[in-house]
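Contributing: when you submit paired examples, paste them exactly as shown. First protein:
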Amino acid sequence: MTNSSNPTILMTGGAGFVGRVLCGKLAEAFPLSHRVLLCRNGLGMSNGWETAVADVTDFDAVGMLVSRIKPDIVLHLAAQASVANAQNYAEQTWRTNVIGTMSIGSAVARFAPSATVLFVSSGEVYGANLTEAPTTEAIQPLPQNPYSWSKFAAERVLYDVLTTDNKLIVARPFNHSGAGQDRRFVLPSFAAQIVEAELGLREPQLQVGNLEAKRDFLHVDDVVSAYVGLLRASPRLSRSTVVNISSGEALPVSYYLAEMTKLSSARVEIIVDKEKMRPSDVSCSCGDNSLLRSLIGWSPKISKAALLQELLTSWRNRYG
C-alpha cells in the first residue's frame, strides 16, 4: 500500500450483503482514508464513503474514476452472487463477473499500477474437486456452473491484466451468512420460513433443497475481518496470494435446519422441493483455513449457534 495509515480505498459491491458490512469495518480500520464506493446508484451510503455512480462493466467510466482518485487499495466485490441466479442468467453472470472484473483490472493497471487489489472469488471454484477433506489452496479448481466458472475466469483476468507492481489477493470464501442476507440463500430461507410459520403467515411447512449436502458456514463478520486482516498484511504478502476463508468444518444442511427449528416454537413439516435442487451440487464443500491462520492469525469468533439465532431474530424483527 502506498499510504498505510490514510490510503485511498476504492470498493465495488458495497451495496451488497457483505459489502455493507465491509464498508463499516473499513471505515473503522482506516479512519483517515479517502473511501470511494463504485455503485450503480448512490442510495444508502454511509460511514463517510464518497459515491461514484457507474456500471462496473463501463470501461470508460471506471477508467475515469480510477484515474481521478488513484486508489492505493481496491476491493472488488461486485458480482452476480447467487449460484441459482447464475444458472438462469448465465450471460449476465459472465458479463458482470468477468467483464466487470476486466474493467476494474485494466483501469487499475493503467492508473494505479502499484495498488493492492483484493478480489472476492469463491470456494465454489474448486467444484468437482471438493471432497470430504477440507480443501486447500493447492487443489486445482474444477468449476461446475456459470457462477464458479466466471469467478475462476475473473481470477485469471486479474492475474494477467494487473502489473507486476500491483499486489493481488484472491480471497476464496466458502459459505457465509448473517442478518440481512437475501432469502434466496439457504440459511435465510430457512429462518424466514420458520418465522412466517411462527406468525401464522404460512402453513407450517418448510420448502427445502438438498439437506444431505455438507456445507462450511461462517458468520459474515468473520469473513469481513479476514478481508481487513489480509489488507493490513498486504505489504508482506507475495505479488499474488490465493487464500481460503472458511471455518474448516462442514456439517449437513439438515444440521443447520434442525438447530434452527429447536430455537422456534413452530412445529413444521419439511418438504423437499425439487426446484431447489442444484444440478451440479457437490456433496461436501469445506475449506482448509490453515493458510489464512498463518498469514494473519485469524480465527472465527462467532459460533454457528449464534449465527442461526441471529438469522431468526433478524426475520422476527423484520416482521415486527
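Second protein:
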Amino acid sequence: MTLTDWLLDGDPAVRWQVERDLLGAPDAVWQATRARVATEGFGAALLAAQDPDGRWAGGAHFPAGFFADGRPAEPGQPWTATSWSLNQLREWGVDAAALGDTAERLDRACRWEYDDMPFWGGEVDVCINAFTLANGAWLGADVSRLVAWFPAHRLDDGGWNCEAEEGDSVRSSFHSTLNALRGMLSCEAFTGDTSLRDARHAGEEYLLRRRLLYRASTGERVGDFVDHFVYPPRHRYSALTALDHFREAALVDGTEPDERIADAVELVRSARQPDGTWLQGAPLEGRTWFDVDAPEGEPSRWLTLIGTRVLAWADDADSAQPTATNDTA
C-alpha cells in the first residue's frame, strides 16, 4: 500500500482533507467525501453521543459529575463534554446542518462550570472562549460578545494568556495565543466577518517574532511541547499545529509564508519518518469517547496529513522564490 492509499483508507474525516489538500481533487470529489463524515465513522459516532438537550456528557467543558466537593473526581482532563465534542466535529468538517438546532438547545440548556455563565457568551478563559467563538460561528450562534472580547483582552506583547484573567501573568502564552488565533480565523472563515483580523495579525506577529519556537527573553526553545506532535492536540501548542494555522491563515489572507517559520518547518521535517509518515506522540491524559488515531509510537494518519500539507505549503513557497544569479548588465 502506498502512503497515499494508506491515507485514503482512513476515516472520511481524514480522507476528504487528503483529497483536497494533498491530491488537489475536484471540489465535487472531496465535498462528497466530506458529506459522509456526518453519517459514517468518527463523525457519526460522536453525533450519536449527543444528549437530547444538545450537550455532550451533560456538561459544557467538563462532563456532569466531574467535580466532587470542588475537586476533580478522576485524573486528567476529560475530553467528552460539549466544547471538546463540538471542536472535533467542526475540525472534522461536519456540516452545521447535521447538528440541527444544537445552537438553540445549548443556548437554553448549557451553562459554563465557571460562574454558571451562558454558553454562547463564553467565560473568562481564553482557550475556552476561542473554542466557543469558532463553534458558535460554525453553528450560527450569536457570538458578538466574544468578537468584542478578544481585542479587549489582548496583552501588551500582542498575544493572550489564560492565566492573565486570574492576574497571574502579564505575558502571553504560546498555547493560549495559538488557540485564540485559530478561533478568530475560524470565525472569519465561517462568517466572513473581518473585524478580528487586526487582532489576529497582532497575535500572529507575537508568535512570528519568536519564530514559533523560542523565548523572546533568552532565545532558548520555549518548551518540550513544541515538538510533541499528537492528534488530537486539544489545547496544546506544537510547531506542527502552529504551522497548520499559518498555512490556513495564508490561504484566507492571500499571503505567502513568512520567512520566520523556517526553523519550525525544519523541526516538523526532521520528525518525518523515512516512509513519509509522522508517529503519534503521547496522548493527553483524559477520558475520550473513542480513539480517533493510532496508539503512541505508531504512524498517525492525522499527523501525516497535517505534516505533509504543511511542508508542501512551505516548500512550494520556497520553490516559487526567484533564484539569485551573478549576472551583470
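If you have annotations for the second protein, write them as plain sentences, like these:
The longest helix spans residues 301-320.
The radius of gyration is 20 Å.
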